[in-house]
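The following block was generated as part of the benchmark described in Methods. Ligand: phosphoric acid mono(formamide)ester.
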Amino acid sequence: MHLQGQHLQGQHILSVEQFSLADINTLFTTAEKLELVAKGVVTTKILDGAILANLFFEASTRTRMSFHSAFARLGGDICDTTGFSFSSISKGESLADTAQVISEYADVIVMRHPEQGAVADFAQHATVPVINGGDGPGEHPTQALLDLYTITRHFNQTNQPVDGATIALSGDLKHGRTVHSLAKLLARYQQITFHFIAPDSLQMPPAIIDWLAAKGHRVHCFPRPEQGLPDADVIYCTRIQKERFNAEQLDATPDESQLFSINQTIINRYAKPSAIILHPLPRDSRDGAFDLSTDLDADPRLQIFTQAANGIPVRMALFVHCLGLQDLVGHDFAPA
Ligand code: CP
């Protein structure tokens, strides 16, 4: 399925592969129009009477709450369920039955599920648009959209084109669905140079590397941050996702989290002064070292909190387009 810029209405949002550059630009134009609504400066009732079903079967803070906040800021109502134990799936109900039932309760459904492909399976049985909030190690399309929104806004402000940019992705590139989706989304641009920084055991899946190379992008894999950070315009860090390791991987993979900890010393030594540093969050400090150190928090290159905030206007824009309301944006804005 390939979407056209103006025709997201009624579509499921399952993978970034659905989006053309025209779709992305259309969404981002709508997101920019909604920035003041996202910040609560102006109000709108564009989704008055609409209901979002927010179904999260895997841990989440940002995605679950920002989808909720985005829908509420647009005037809609939200019903949700979190975790299998509080859903009738724990009584053996199938995803197919759940999808058919909830389609009668809501106008749009957001779902996160620990199994790759489960959101797409669910969507086959839903009669309202389903948005993938993350399916195991598969994809996280709305995270990639907000990441790209953050990147393009920064590049626009500094008069840099995305075409020809060098993007460093660091950490657990094997299990990190955000980096899978972001790499595919960036591939819509021309001549991107990707620096994939990860130990061999956690490198980007070969299928994605081959797909990017076949599209004419340059791909370089590095085992250490100091090798992949120089020349990068964007440094995108991720945590090691041990919850996705099987027992064999847990035994076989040395604890390399310290080697992939990006901190002020490494950034000062190897990163360009103009680079921006992103992370989908959460940062993980459980092994004694953050994957992205808090000693960078005062560095203006660190844009992780702007990035997380951008989840609201981008997710608002997706709702508006999925529900076919884009032509109404701005018509009823009122001061808060
Ligand atoms: N970035 C992200 O998906 O965060 P959560 O897991 O908290 O939703």
